[in-house]
Design brief:
By secondary structure, the chain is an alpha/beta fold. The chain contains eight helices and five strands, in the order βαβαβαβαβαααα. The protein has helices at 34-46, 57-67, 83-94, 107-116, 128-143, 166-179, 183-197, 201-218; strands spanning 26-30, 50-54, 71-74, 98-102, 120-123. The longest helix has 18 residues, at 201-218. 38% of the residues are buried.
Length: 221
């Protein structure tokens, strides 16, 4: 049967002839929760992005092959192909960067997110005012090696308005889930941990993720 078809093959009609010249970027949003899908799609469209949405992994791959998005925003746990399955395909066949939006941040999930090379990992629940800046930051990381300010519709003066490295974003997501706190509180907690240990925040974030991976390896088989 050979390898799966790669991106760019004309499998779908519809939006194929749309131009993205008036949009900031093309975003693929994948979530099997229709309410979340509609909310995120509407919010990103209002923010100036061209959005393609799918509620399952198979449709997501078809859309990715047809439209070559600049970034994919993936739920993790879905019926059929999971977000991890879609991410692996995007990485191997499309070279499309991706980020995860999920309600789960257990050790095994964090380890897999890290291994796949996601540009960001956001833990639900989040409102669109948090997702849009995260998408903007992810696109900056993808398109430039230089840090750039992250515009925020919430706390414009807060520390999280600076571009957040992937490892820091993942650690923040873990702390949000573990302690039931919001993104800002999690970032402050991580910074406090770094200060107490005399580490840079990125080094502290990496240490946290490394500890989670050790726990995952030592857990039940």
């Amino acid at each position: 049967m050979g390898h799966p078809p790669q991106c760019g093959h004309p499998f779908m009609k519809g939006w194929a002839n749309m131009t993205s010249t008036t949009y900031k970027a093309k975003i693929l949003v994948v979530d099997d929760d229709r309410l979340v899908l509609a909310t995120v799609t509407h919010g990103l469209t209002q923010a100036g992005y061209q959005v393609f949405d799918a509620d399952n992994g198979d449709d997501a791959i078809l859309l990715a092959r047809e439209h070559r998005p600049d970034l994919a925003l993936l739920d993790i746990r879905m019926e059929g192909k999971s977000g991890f399955d879609v991410a692996a395909y995007l990485r191997e066949y499309c070279q499309t960067p991706f980020m995860f939006l999920s309600a789960f941040s257990d050790e095994a999930t964090v380890k897999q997110v890290h291994a796949l090379g996601a540009v960001a990992y956001l833990v639900k629940p989040l409102d669109i005012g948090q997702i849009v800046p995260a998408v903007e930051a992810a696109l900056v990381r993808v398109n430039s090696t230089a840090p750039a300010p992250l515009r925020s519709t919430t706390n414009a003066s807060a520390p999280e308005t600076e571009t957040m490295p992937t490892v820091v974003a993942m650690a923040v997501g873990v702390l949000m889930h573990r302690h039931g706190i919001d993104r800002m509180a999690a970032l402050n907690r991580l910074q406090k941990m770094a200060d107490e240990q005399g580490h840079a925040i990125a080094a502290q974030a990496q240490a946290l993720l490394n500890a989670l991976e050790v726990l995952a390896k030592s857990g039940p088989a």
